[in-house]
Amino acid sequence: MTPEQIKLVQESWASVKPISEKAAELFYGKLFELNPAYRELFPEDMVEQGRKLMAMINTAVNSLNNLEAVVPAVEEMGKRHVGYGVKEEDYDVVGEALLWTLGAGLGDAFTDEVKQAWTDTYVLLATTMKNAAASMAA
User: Fold this and answer.
1) Residue 15 needs a FRET pair 20 to 30 A away by CA distance; which of 7, 25, 91, 136 works?
2) Around Cβ 60, how many Cβ atoms within 10 Å?
3) What is the CATH number of the domain that holds 22?
4) How many whole angstroms separate alpha carbon 12 and alpha carbon 36?
């Protein structure tokens, strides 16, 4: 990722943080719309799950200038998700829901450049998780 992309992600995330509870609600709503079967993988009360999601995204966004610091945690998360039954193709659905949520939350500020920066960020983190998950099967 370029320094400009990191800046775009971090600045746009600063606009999402104040509405993080609503953003989490939008994200999971979209995720379950895209694949209703995912709903059974989560607890009934999604408030705490939403907080965990927002905290994880916040940590990742704040670590973009020092990815080495967050990679072990991202890899562990990828390994844990294997136990939840997450498959490689599920990451695409999550990415779609995340980008949709950011677009809904940021409105006109979700420019093509911001969307591409977030896409690259997500692909980087998801690839790290998928590689860690695959290493368990190797």
Assistant:
1) 91
2) 20
3) 1.10.490.10
4) 29
Q: Which two tokens stand for residue 75?
A: 């890899």
User: How many domains does one find in the chain?
Assistant: 1
pTM: 0.92
**CA angle 100–69–94, rounded 5-degree value:** 20
If residue 53 lies in a helix (H) or strand (E), which one and from where to where? Answer: helix 47-62
Q: What is the pLDDT of residue 83?
A: 85
CA distances 88 to 19, 22, 71, 103, 124, Å, are 29, 27, 18, 24, 14
Residue closest to 27 by CA, chosen among 128, 102, 129, 125 = 102
Tokens of 138: 């190797």
Q: What are the pLDDT digits (tens) for 27-83?
A: 999 999 999 999 998 999 999 999 999 999 999 999 999 988 888 999 999 999 888
128 neighbors 74 (Cβ within 8 angstroms): yes
Domain containing residue 53 = 3-137
Q: How far is CA 61 from the centre of its chain?
A: 10
